Amino acid sequence: MSNPVYLALDLPQLDAARALAEKVKAHVGGFKLGLEFFCAHGHHGVHELAHVGLPLFLDLKLHDIPNTVAGAMQSIHVLEPAIVTVHASGGRAMMEDAKAAASDSCKVVAVTMLTSLDERDLVRTGVAGSAHDQVMRLAELAEAAGLDGIVCSGQEVGAVHKQWKDGFFVVPGLRPGGKATGDQKRVVTPRKARDDGASVLVIGRPISRAEDPVQAAREIEATL
């Protein structure tokens, strides 16, 4: 992948999302469309962004019984996504069925621990151990289920890469040096994540909310 940056296009207005995509497409490698975008615009919105001509990452974080997740995966074949997410905490059977139902050209990756969570949040949900331990456990489960890779923070990607040499690793929650972290708790710079083994760098607000999104994308691209 020549440019690992996927711009998160979670904008409520479809026209604004497509306009931003057209504006920065020369400086990113693809676009991430999450729940906010998909719930607002559905298949039509995905088709509109496909016209921009870059790979699409559907960050749907599917998490349900295996049969339901498999059916959902089959229903998005027509959208031809490059990447789709499921939740690793859905279990091995769910991940196996998700991968079996996906198209051959689609990478299925498992979300381990959201970058908006820290160890205090784990404790409140009844999970013992550190964030690092939780990510490593779920990465091992995803690999055993035959998935292509995982989603994790930049703080864990290096350790996961050592454990899973040929895995495909998506890292969100990235902030260029000096930028506000917002609601993200476990963040690193894009360059640090890439150096540690990230395959895809998901970046949203540092580009989409910049005064000059093109310049912001160019500056991030230059660090890689």
Structure description:
With 224 residues, this protein is of the alpha/beta class. Helix content is 42%, strand content 17%. The protein is built from ten helices and eight strands. The protein has helices at 14-24, 35-50, 66-75, 92-101, 119-124, 131-144, 157-163, 190-195, 205-208, 213-223, and strands at residues 5-8, 30-34, 56-62, 83-87, 107-111, 149-151, 168-171, 200-203. It has an eight-stranded parallel β-barrel. Strand 2, helix 2 (35-50) and strand 3 form a beta-alpha-beta unit. Helix 1 crosses helix 2 and helix 3 (66-75) runs parallel beside helix 4. The chain is globular.
Question: What is the structure about, briefly put?
Answer:
Helix 1 packs across helix 2 (35-50) and helix 3 runs parallel beside helix 4.
Report helical residue fraction: 40-55%
Rg on CA atoms, Å: 17 Å
Major beta sheet summary: 8 strands, parallel, barrel
Within the largest sheet, what's the order of strands?
A: 1-2-3-4-5-6-7-8
Q: Roughly what is the average pLDDT, rounded to an integer?
A: 93
* Alpha plus pi helix count: 10
Percentage of residues in DSSP E strands = 15-25%
Q: List segments where confidence is low: pLDDT < 50 over at least 5 consecutive residues.
A: none
Secondary-structure element order, N to C: EHEHEHEHEHHEHEHEHH
Q: Secondary-structure blueprint of this entry?
A:
Elements: E1 5-8, H1 14-24, E2 30-34, H2 35-50, E3 56-62, H3 66-75, E4 83-87, H4 92-101, E5 107-111, H5 119-124, H6 131-144, E6 149-151, H7 157-163, E7 168-171, H8 190-195, E8 200-203, H9 205-208, H10 213-223
Parallel strand pairs: 1-2, 1-8, 2-3, 3-4, 4-5, 5-6, 6-7, 7-8
